[in-house]
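User: Hey, my collaborator sent me this sequence without any context and asked if I could get a structure. I don't really work with proteins. Can you help?
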Amino acid sequence: MKSALTLAIALTALMVTFSLQNAQTVQVHFLGWYFEGALVLVLLMSFAMGALTMYLASLPARFARNRQLAEQRRQLEACTRSLDRLQSAHPGVKHRTHNPSRPRAANACDRATA
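Assistant: No problem. I've predicted the 3D structure and written it out in structure-token form, which is a compact way to encode the shape of the chain:
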């Protein structure tokens, strides 16, 4: 927490210094739109527009990852229910650990996680 506060203070100091050194007025013409203001404002608006564009561009990948995660959670719950059902049907059977040198038959849970 202390390092985050130190980093925030350092970034704020850099932004203040940047703002003071880039206070001159500039003109921006874009598609018939005209703006005159401080250079620092133009740069910060450009940065904000770029950040917004990157965020919007990342949304499809985020949605796909969330859908995949939800599907994997459903598969895990199904496998857990299946395991619980099998363990309750055979209470005297002890769980064996998998021996990697001995192949085992694949089941629905193995296919779901592959």
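In plain terms: The helical segments are 2-21, 39-89, 108-113. You can pass these tokens on to your collaborator as they are.
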